[in-house]
Amino acid sequence: MPELNAIAAIAGRDLLKFIRDPGRLVAAVVFPFVMIFLLGGTLQLNLGQSAGFNFIGFTFTGFLGMTLFQSTAQGLSSLMEDRQNDFAQEVFVSPVSRYSIVFGKIAGETLVAIMQVIPFVLFALLLRVPLTPLHVALLVPVALLSCFMGGAFGLLLLNTMSDTRAANQIFNFVFLPQYFLAGLISPINVLPWYLAVLSLLSPMRYVIDLARGVVFSGTPEYSRVVLLSPATNIAVLAAMFVVFMVAGTALFVRRETSR
User: Fold this and answer.
1) CA–CA gap between residue 146 and residue 152 (Å, rounded)
2) pTM value > 0.85
3) What is the pLDDT of residue 234?
4) Contact status, residue 72 vs residue 150, Cβ threshold 8 Å
5) What gap in Å lies between CA 212 and CA 4, rounded to an integer?
């Protein structure tokens, strides 16, 4: 019970911090509108007919997967700051397992990421992205898997960071290339061999492709926008999650124990 209480307290604290931050709440509403409406609409008008698929739906799934994955991953970096302040400092010196701290943090950032993508779904419906109730229902487990994957990836990156400045540099270095390698806003069906290899190593690719596999299932453009079957994407993400989670947690626990 103490471990479960610690996980719930850490997760609840992260969600409460998000709700009490007006700037983040406004950004969670404005950002998806700008990205889906302006970027997706522009691409659809200029390239949609020649590409043969709906760029608004393509952009929606790209930013949906990216937000879930990146928000959770970046949220793990706050453990560095949390260790120096009130609540988290008490948690770190309490007889609570470091594993519980990690799981609580991932759970909290997962809740925050899901709160951030709710406006995505609402705007997608307003912009007539072909979403059925079944699609929305299937996106729930996809969102959870994407967040857990992002949390495990962020945990692994956390062990390479020494401070906030280093975190910003590392995140920019790691995430910006993945926007292009994962097909965030443009198809990646054909790539040079060296970029194809990097794309296959990009965790974000499988997160976005899984979301697209759900949203575009049963449509004529499915083969144009989806790279791998949902089952393959889930298998790859599950394997990556296990590797990242085991390695990241072991390194984090060793790092914190040696302090």
Assistant:
1) 10
2) yes
3) 95
4) yes
5) 34
- Res. 241: pLDDT tops 90: yes
- Domains identified in the chain, total number: 1
| DSSP class per residue in 98-164 | HHHHHHHHHHHHHHHHHHHHHHHHHHHHHTT----HHHHHHHHHHHHHHHHHHHHHHHHHHTT-SSH
228 has a pLDDT exceeding 70: yes
DSSP letter for 239, please.
H
Burial per residue of 30-48, b for 16 or more beta-carbon CB atoms within 10 angstroms, e otherwise: eebeebbeebbeebbeeeb
Any idea what DSSP says for residue 40? Answer: I
Is the separation of the CB atoms in 135 and 90 below 8 Å? no
pLDDT at 207 over 90: yes
For 136, the domain range is: 2-257
Distances (CA, A) of 144 to 65, 121, 192: 11, 15, 32
Per-residue confidence (pLDDT) for residue 121, from 0 to 100 = 82
Q: Which residues contact 108 (CB under 8 A, 6 or more apart)?
A: 10, 11, 12, 13, 14, 15, 75
User: What's the pLDDT tens digit per position in 35-56?
Assistant: 776 666 666 556 555 556 677 7
CB 32 within 8 A of CB 78: no
